[in-house]
Write a structure and sequence with these properties.
CATH topology of the domain at 320-409 in chain B: TATA-Binding Protein
Number of strands of chain B: 18
Number of helices of chain A: 10
Shape of chain B: globular
Order of helices and strands of chain A: HHHHHHHEEHHH
Oligomer: heterodimer
Strand content of chain A: under 5%
Number of domains of chain A: 1
Largest sheet of chain A: 2 strands, antiparallel
Radius of gyration of chain B: 29 Å
Order of helices and strands of chain B: HHHHEHEEEEEHEEEEEEHEEHHEEEEH
CATH class of the domain at 320-409 in chain B: Alpha Beta
Structural class of chain A: mainly alpha
Shape of chain A: globular
Distance between the termini of chain B: 91 Å
CATH architecture of the domain at 320-409 in chain B: 2-Layer Sandwich
């Protein structure tokens, strides 16, 4: 993997030393995005995500009709309408694949730089640790948006290629036209991006604890799995509304007519709480930490 | 760590850099330690703020102005006289009756045309959310919101549609001309939860001289100021301790119903609006066309006269009141006792006992919940009991088991 030292960042830092902090943060953010999405690993993650709808679509295409009510929701609708590949793929990727990829990116934020020995360079430039933390988190959020978007768009594309595309039946039994269905796919991608914001904050915090990125990545993924397991235990019902994975599958509310925004709002509030708590923890840890690498 | 050259030199530079950067602020190790401590303040503050916010949210909101005082009779008249048939809102229903919980994703959420004990059981356990849209007396839509699924009941004039997204199935029913305006539920149709109005109407109808009616402190329901009408049975012969009905001060519409078992502190059953709008819902909501690929089953309207019993217990009724009402419809009026102590009897029919056995065999959870007692089996909940006798009779009531047994033993 190529080193993530960014000459342009350092150059920019020198050139705009006296520039207002806002502009500096933005250029650091763009550079962070360039590094993140310039990495082969990021592309591998996105390609793996795009493979999910492709696998589903090909499997349905090659097999006989799926009996209604079997398998994940929407699976039985695919053969009639290709756009359901996107819904099915997003549903299937929620429990494991999305948290896995987000865990890799979020766990790598600080620990990855520390591991490569580039963290100190970033901080020698008058970046400020807070700003670096914010930029790193913003980069992870950008991936949180890119990941479900990749699944949804790849699903819609492969679905349109292999199956007929027509009006989409919503959960309420009402039918909407394909352009509106595309809008709903984007809405669900946004919902999932918000859903993953809390996990990213957890990953960011874990990433400040260690200089071994793999450790932070694995810990983030484990946290997401543990949260989902706890969400399944009826004995812990009081805890469920507090788990960051609690509303992950609530995006079905975006497939009702009229749109039901309740779970979107609850989810956003919950994720904001996680971002605040783990953001504050990451701040406390990162600004008091001795950067040795 | 990762860098290969000049580690020591770089380290020194970085350490120097750090110190130079911090130099104006840091005066000695103590200050540095203090500052390090300060950096953790947000991490401690944020959870505290969140906890405070959550606690503040649990304190019930006080209505700005106290409602004008009304006597219980006036509140009952207000509730009885409400004419609100155009609204949309969200209803949440929660039951802690002590029945085994059936997962909403399980076999209970079957085809749209499914009726029977399973769906009735489902609406008697756990929590359910439904959206209700009403436009006058003949246009209505109820959406039972399940996780990644939905069950809809749409009524437009005489046409009633049932849709279940889980298997994309549709059922259709044409109401007979003499059908009542409301409610939606019709004997033999799939399950749907009941609105607070329907429940409140049933309880208010039952409130007679055996009931102490009072008005509690004002409450807020669905963001609206409401009178809190309290019905308390005067008898010890029932399991029900208290029924609280929130009656909207402006319209008289019942906004929520909470039923508390005798001796319990928390409601065993509650259903109420969490949001309510009195605007007219979009008319397009009531125009339902079966979606492409959906199997449409035509249902025959059943009539209220006596008919063969299937399978002894009514289909879609979340409260004991409904249970009684449906049992009365189906079995004729075989009741003993009155008011809250009413026991409904469904007489045995040929083959009824074996059908009950088959029913229990088909519902392991139900079989588990039905406890064997002398003379039969009892399905016991916090608010009502059902006695299934060995010879196929069914007794149900909001009364203790002993009373059901006594009723079954009586000639």
């Amino acid at each position: 993997m190529s080193s993530s030292v960014r000459p342009e960042t350092l150059g920019t830092a020198d050139a705009t030393d006296a520039a207002p902090p806002g502009g500096w943060g933005l250029s650091l953010f763009w550079s962070e995005l360039r590094v993140l999405f310039g990495r082969r690993r990021t592309w591998a993650l996105l390609l793996a995500l795009a493979a999910i709808p492709v696998l589903i679509a090909v499997a349905v295409r090659l097999s006989s009709a799926v009996p209604a009510g079997r398998g994940p929701a929407f699976l039985d609708r695919i053969s009639q309408n290709g756009l359901f590949v996107a819904f099915t793929a997003m549903l299937v990727s929620v429990p494991l694949f999305l948290p896995l990829t987000v865990g890799v990116v979020a766990g790598d934020t600080i620990a990855g730089e520390a591991n490569l020995g580039t963290l100190r360079y970033l901080l020698v430039a008058p970046t400020g640790r807070v700003r670096l933390l914010l930029v790193k988190y913003a980069g992870a959020l950008a991936f949180c948006l890119a990941a479900p978007l990749t699944v949804g768009l790849a699903g819609a594309a492969i679905g349109a290629a292999l199956f007929p595309v027509g009006p989409v039946t919503l959960l309420s039994g009402d039918v909407i036209e394909p352009p509106q269905a595309a809008l709903r796919i984007l809405l669900i991608a946004a919902y999932l991006a918000v859903s993953l914001a809390g996990l990213s904050a957890v990953g960011l915090f874990l990433s400040t604890l260690t200089v071994v990125p793999v450790g932070a990545m694995a810990a983030t993924v484990v946290v997401s799995v543990v949260s989902q397991v706890l969400d399944q235990l009826p004995q812990l019902e009081w805890l469920h509304p507090w788990l960051f994975s609690h509303y992950w599958l609530g995006f079905g509310d975006l497939l009702r007519q009229p749109l039901l925004w309740d779970s979107f709002a609850s989810n956003a509030l919950l994720q904001a709480g996680y971002v605040a708590v783990f953001g504050a923890l990451a701040y406390g840890r990162f600004v008091t930490k001795d950067i040795l690498s | 760590m990762g860098s290969s050259d000049g580690v020591d030199g770089t380290m020194n530079r970085i350490m120097n850099g750090r110190q130079r950067q911090h130099a104006p602020e840091v005066r000695g190790a103590d200050r540095a330690r203090n500052r390090a401590w300060l950096r953790w303040v947000p991490a401690a503050t944020v959870p505290a703020v969140i906890a405070a916010g959550v606690l503040a949210g649990t304190i019930p909101a006080r209505a700005g102005d106290p409602l004008p005082t009304k006597t219980p009779a006036e509140v009952m008249a207000l509730a009885a006289g409400h004419r609100t048939h155009t609204f949309s809102g969200t209803i949440e229903q929660s039951s802690e009756l002590g029945l085994p919980e059936l997962p909403a994703t399980g076999p209970t959420a079957g085809p749209a045309s499914a009726d029977g004990i399973a769906s009735a059981m489902e609406f008697l356990t756990g929590e359910h959310t439904a959206r209700v849209f009403m436009d006058g007396k003949t246009n209505a839509r109820i959406q039972v919101v399940d996780r990644l699924a939905e069950r809809d009941v749409i009524r437009s004039g005489d046409e009633v549609w049932f849709y279940s997204s889980r298997d994309n199935s549709t059922a259709h029913l044409t109401l007979p001309g003499d059908a009542s305006d409301l409610p939606l539920a019709h004997p033999g149709t799939p399950a749907a939860p009941h609105t607070p109005q329907e429940l409140a109407d049933k309880f208010l109808a039952a409130a007679d001289s055996s009931t102490a009616v009072s008005v509690g402190p004002d409450v807020q329901a669905a963001g609206r100021a409401a009178y809190n009408l309290l019905l308390e049975p005067r008898t010890n012969g029932t399991l029900v301790g208290k029924v609280a009905i929130a009656v909207d001060a402006a319209t008289g519409m019942p906004l929520s119903v909470q039923v508390t078992a005798r001796g319990a502190s928390r409601p065993a059953f509650s259903a109420g609006f969490t949001s309510l709008s009195l605007d007219q819902p979009d008319v397009a909501l009531f125009n339902f066309v079966p979606p492409p690929g959906s199997m449409v089953e035509e249902l025959q309207p059943r009539h209220h006269e006596r008919q063969s019993l299937n399978p002894g217990i009514p289909d879609s009724h979340p409260t004991r009141e409904d249970l009684a009402a449906a049992l009365e419809q189906k079995a004729g009026e075989y009741t003993t006792g009155s008011g809250w102590e009413t026991v409904v009897e469904v007489p045995a029919e040929a083959g009824a006992a074996s059908r009950l056995d088959a029913l229990l065999a088909g519902n392991p959870l139900l079989a588990q919940a039905a406890v064997a007692v002398p003379g039969g089996r009892v399905l016991s909940t916090a608010l009502f009991n059902v006695l299934l006798t060995d010879d196929g009779r069914v007794y149900a009531g909001m009364v203790p088991v002993e009373r059901l047994q006594a009723a079954s033993a009586a000639p």
